Amino acid sequence: MYDSLIRGHDPKALAIEGPGIRMSYGQLDQATAKSVDPSPFVARQEITTIVHLLALWRQGQVACLLSHRLPPKALEEASQRMRGAKGFATLQVTSGTTGRAKIAAHSFENHLSSARAMVEQLQLGPGSRYLLNLPLFPVAGMAPLIGTFLAGATLVLEGSTGITHLSAVPTQLHTMKPFPDLKTLLLGGAPLMDTLPEKTLGSYGMTEMSSTIAVGTKWLTPLPHVEVKIDKKGQIWVRGPSLFQGYFEKGELLLPQEEGWFATGDLGSWRADGAFEWVGRSDRQFITGGENIQPEEIEKALTALPGVVSAKVEPRVDNLYGKRPVASIETSRDVTEAEIKELLEEILPRFKIPDQIFISQL
User: Fold this and answer.
1) Whether pLDDT at 97 is above 60
2) Fewest CB within 10 A of the end CB: N or C in the chain?
3) Which residues contact 357 (CB under 8 A, 6 or more apart)?
4) Cβ–Cβ under 8 Å, residues 152 and 25
5) Residues near 48 by Cβ (< 8 Å), separated by ≥ 6?
């Protein structure tokens, strides 16, 4: 994959632009020639992370991507679970439906098949400038990087000058700067709005499909490389070359699928024109500011705290983030909401900390 991303383009063409740095494809090729540590690493939106990532791929190593949002204990646990992986392009942490985060393994072809479809869909090419507006550790941030380099375009780390493409979640629209040269804004991480901003393309995707599954302005049309079916219960199933390799755990892979079909856990309905509509989740998962929240994970963290006997987490409508978690707990001792939140911050990312915790002492 490395050659397709870096060596297949004019070495003088601009590959990366950021604060105080401009790097051509030729210079990027030189920078990635060094040997790098294949240990799991925190993937940040900066040049050092990108060079490290590409150097790993150049060496045929697995890029084990960690979130800077994870507290130290969770970071160490995820790092340990990733060790020993071989033969993949990436390992990335994704929300689990059973209360524990899962580690998704992708091949180079998984990422490339998704990127090829999006390069064509977004009409990316030399001269395009894609703003890296999302973190790199989830596929939503990884996909723009791979697509930009595959197209021989420029990945921009900061700023608004000359930006032609960017990916965002609805929360970011409230504070986003104007982009006068913008051709397409790819919006994901939430249901499609009734009215999308000008030059905006809605998207539906997931980690397990290496990012985007379908796009549209009101209804969703599957990308050419993806097959979609909706069963009698309304659940959306997907398959195609971008389907991940499986969940990595204890050196083994688990790929829950039926004849190549993967159950998304989402509900949908077909339209007569061949497009479909996302209706909701078949489980309790919800989205906050583009991030998946699994209530069971927060409930498990709460009941692991001293004195917490039971916990229930539910979504509450929020004007900025769409939905935010709130919790109700029963305790066997006197404890304050502030104390509970402080303890949670040691084991959960901040965006998973409930906005409000209602406490009932037994």
Assistant:
1) no
2) C
3) 326, 327, 328, 329, 337, 340, 341
4) yes
5) none
Residues 6+ apart with CB under 8 A from 60: none
Which residue, among 308, 248, 316, 310, has the nearest Cα to 101 in the 3D structure? 248
C-alpha distances in Å from residue 298, one per residue of 18, 100, 283: 37, 9, 15
**Average confidence (pLDDT) over 188-201:** 76
> CA dist 238 to 93, 111, 163, Å?
20, 16, 32
Which residue ranges make up each domain of the chain? 2-281, 286-361
Compute the average pLDDT of residues 53-61. Answer: 97
Structural contact between residues 42 and 68, judged by C-beta atoms closer than 8 angstroms: yes
Architecture per CATH, domain 2-281, reads as 3-Layer(aba) Sandwich (3.40)
Sole residue written with tokens 């395009």: 128
Q: Which CATH number fits domain 286-361: 3.30.1330.40, 3.30.300.30, 3.40.50.300, 3.40.50.2300?
A: 3.30.300.30
Tell me whether domains 2-281 and 286-361 share a fold. no
Which own/partner contact pairs does 276-282 have at CB distance under 8 Å and 24+ positions apart? 276/214, 276/219, 276/220, 276/222, 276/228, 276/230, 276/236, 277/219, 277/220, 278/191, 278/192, 278/204, 278/220, 278/236, 279/234, 282/233, 282/234, 282/235
Strands 184-187 and 246-249: unpaired
pLDDT in tens, 100-159: 789 999 999 999 999 999 999 999 999 999 999 999 999 999 999 999 999 999 999 998
